[in-house]
Amino acid sequence: MNFPFSKISLLLVLLSSCVSFQSRPLTAEQSNADFNTRSLSDPGLRSFLAEQKAVNGSWTVDRLSLAAAYFHPDVVLARAEADEIAAGIKTAQMRPNPVFTFSPQYASFRAPAPTPWFFGPSLSVPIETAGKRSKRTEQALAAAEAARWRVSARAWAARSRVRAAMLELHGARENIRLLETEQKLHDDAIKKLTAQMEAGDVSPFELTQARLMLNRTRLALQDAQRTSTTGEARLAAAAGLPLSVIKSVRLDFSAFQRLPEPSNSRKRALTQRADLMALLSDYAAAEASLKLELARQYPDINVSPGYDYNSGQNRWQLGLNVALPLNRNRGPIAEAEARRITAEKRFLAQQGTIQGELDIALAAYHASRAKAATAAQLAQEADAASETTQKMVEAGNVSALELTRRQIEASAAKVALMAANIEAQTAAGALEDAMQSPLR
Considering only CA atoms, which of 261, 238, 266 is closest in space to residue 158? Predict the structure, then answer.
């Protein structure tokens, strides 16, 4: 007989168009070598900076944070996870495949017939009802949106780490500069006290106190030098870059020279935080899941056209397969409703947590700004006292040792001012984290 092989040919064509496997070897040695070759002149990074309109300029907190968003493994992993979830959109949009069945039979003992073969090819075509595919796609789109928001949240966390590390490094370098000046003043004071003690004008106790103050300053200077060294390593880790890159680049700390007023902080934090928007998308996905489970109350239909060749007869068939919806999908519907409630409560709980974080951050920021203002006033007064003493020395009214003491007081006031400013900038960082938005 002449059996049509068109269906078999179609099957072979479909199999030949399948996606093939592409090998991507992964080794620890190669990944380590790739990390060591990272730099701020990387072409991919420059393209990313161009997209963010930050291709030119110094390496400020904002610009180095973009490098962290490009390089840091936490953000890279979040992007990969988002791509993985987004790939589910394609799966959700796919229609179910029909099933082709071919089951020939051979009869060895039978009456004479045109052929001892029995041919029975059939095709089962599933038909989804109640808009299940569109609801499944809606769920996948909401899940992908949540994943994208979580990339933004990871990128903000990377920025927060970069800012904290840069602030630590800035504070350490400024303290080194101030403490080196103060150490020289203590050395000068000790020389003058030693000469006066030898002349019998001061007691050994005063010299001992001066040496103790010098030792405290030297220890504080060593702490600042240690913090500067570890701060560079911390900044490199926060940016996802080798330490050598941070050591070789010129950093811009100008963002730490001002303490701006917070504006619209509460509204921004409670409506625009990336982690909050991710939970809102999770709720949308849970609601789409409930719609899908409700649609599954209505059974899908399987249409099964078939063909049978038997004893020289061509017989055509048409089958219909429908699951009887006796349980009305009540269990999955109840689970989907519970998941939607959980998603709602998770969103509301996070919003409440943000409210508390914002209240604490605002209170700390205002208090630390007030402290920094007081420290600035005290530093100005110490400078003024030093200048007055300088004039008195020039007039011969007081000794040079008294001027050195006033200069030490002025230097200590500047160190205290730097500490207060660093504390205020730390509070500003906490407020930015509560808003997930920079203070401008």
Answer: 238
Mean pLDDT of the chain: 90
Q: For 329-367, how does the pLDDT look when each residue is reduced to its tens digit (9 = 90+)?
A: 999 999 999 999 999 999 999 999 999 999 999 999 999
Which band of pLDDT confidence, cut at 50, 70 and 90, is reported for residue 1?
A: very low
Q: Compute the distance between CA of residue 428 and CA of residue 258 in angstroms, rounded to an integer.
A: 10
Q: Which two tokens stand for residue 38?
A: 């990272």
Cβ(90)–Cβ(114) under 8 Å? Answer: no
Predicted TM-score (pTM) of the model is 0.87
Give a yes or no: residue 68 inside a domain: yes
> Tokens representing 208?
């001992």
CB atoms within 10 A of CB 172: 21
Residue 167: inside a domain? yes
Please give the Cα distance from 354 to 371 (Å, whole number).
25
| pLDDT surpassing 60 at residue 5 | no
Q: How many domains does the chain have?
A: 1
Nearest-angstrom CA–CA distance, 376 and 140: 55
Beta strands 301-310; 122-127: pairing state: antiparallel
Distance (Å, rounded) from C-alpha 327 to C-alpha 233?
61
Q: Tell me the per-residue pLDDT of 54-100, one tens digit each, with 9 for 90 and over.
A: 888 899 999 999 999 999 999 999 999 999 999 999 999 999 989 88
28 within domain boundaries: no
- What residue has token string 């020279």? 257
Q: Of 394, 428, 396, 440, which is closest to residue 160 (Cα–Cα)?
A: 428
425: nearest Cα among 225, 258, 224 = 258
Q: Give, in order, the Cα–Cα distances in Å from 247 to each of 42, 151, 163, 175, 236.
A: 17, 28, 17, 19, 9
Range of the domain at 257: 44-94+131-298+330-435
**DSSP-assigned states of every residue in 390-422:** HHHHHTTSS-HHHHHHHHHHHHHHHHHHHHHHH
Is residue 423 a contact partner of residue 368, using CB atoms and an 8 Å limit? yes
Q: Is residue 236 part of a domain?
A: yes
Q: Are strands 117-118 and 313-322 parallel, antiparallel or unpaired?
A: unpaired
CATH number at residue 376: 1.20.1600.10
Note the pLDDT tens digit of each residue in 229-255.
999 999 999 999 999 999 999 999 999
